[in-house]
């Protein structure tokens, strides 16, 4: 299949407006366009979504089961406290990659802990828009290794 779901959490719809010194001046639409171009080059099909609502993110994760091969998730603030999103990632059994625009480990102490990291195959943070691009390359690699081995990669 090579289908990738890219989920964006709360306040990411304000990229380019809020805290430009941390998140940069590019909008979420700019990032979505870069994801689309990179996806096509890698032979991936991506759906790019954003929600400010925890339950909607959980619904998207649950609906992804059997439809997508990899999830790339920037859960934003939910990263640090949403056990519900963590449980949904674990339950759907789709390899998931956690991403962040900023380096969460160099910011405020409360941002250092990710409750979703233990149920993701990896974490990419601190590279701005490139965090998404790097995650797409990682997703393509996961798919290639899965196809080469004939095994499920989780």
TrEMBL record:
Catalytic site: 23, 100
GO molecular function: 3-dehydroquinate dehydratase activity
One Pfam family in the UniProt entry: DHquinase_II
GO terms, biological process: amino acid biosynthetic process; aromatic amino acid family biosynthetic process; chorismate biosynthetic process; quinate catabolic process
Pathway field: Metabolic intermediate biosynthesis; chorismate biosynthesis; chorismate from D-erythrose 4-phosphate and phosphoenolpyruvate: step 3/7
Keywords assigned by UniProt, alphabetized: Amino-acid biosynthesis, Aromatic amino acid biosynthesis, Lyase
UniProt-listed Enzyme Commission number(s): 4.2.1.10
Record site feature (Transition state stabilizer), residues: 18
Primary enzyme class: lyase
InterPro entries given in the database record: DHquinase_II, DHquinase_II_CS, DHquinase_II_sf
SUPFAM superfamilies noted in UniProt: Type II 3-dehydroquinate dehydratase (SSF52304)
Domain of life from the UniProt record: Bacteria
Annotated residues for binding of substrate: 74, 80, 87, 101-102, 111
Catalytic activity: 3-dehydroquinate = 3-dehydroshikimate + H2O
Function according to Swiss-Prot or TrEMBL: Catalyzes a trans-dehydration via an enolate intermediate.
Oligomer status and interactors: Homododecamer.
Protein name: 3-dehydroquinate dehydratase
Taxonomy of the source species: Bacteria, Bacillati, Bacillota, Clostridia, Eubacteriales
Gene: aroQ
């Amino acid at each position: 299949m090579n289908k990738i779901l890219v989920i964006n959490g709360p306040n990411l719809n304000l990229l380019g407006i809020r805290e430009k010194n941390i998140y940069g001046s590019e909008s979420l639409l700019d990032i979505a366009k870069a994801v689309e171009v990179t996806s096509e080059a890698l032979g991936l099909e991506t759906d790019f979504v954003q929600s400010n609502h925890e339950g909607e993110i959980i619904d998207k994760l649950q609906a992804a089961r059997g439809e997508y091969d990899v999830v790339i998730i920037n859960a934003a603030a939910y990263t640090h406290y949403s056990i519900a999103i963590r449980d949904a990632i674990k339950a759907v059994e789709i390899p998931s990659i956690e991403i962040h625009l900023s380096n969460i480990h160099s910011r405020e102490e409360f941002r250092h802990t990710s409750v979703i990291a233990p149920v993701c195959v990896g974490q990419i943070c601190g590279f701005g828009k490139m965090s998404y691009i790097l995650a797409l390359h990682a997703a393509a690699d996961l798919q290639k290794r899965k196809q080469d081995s004939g095994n499920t990669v989780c």
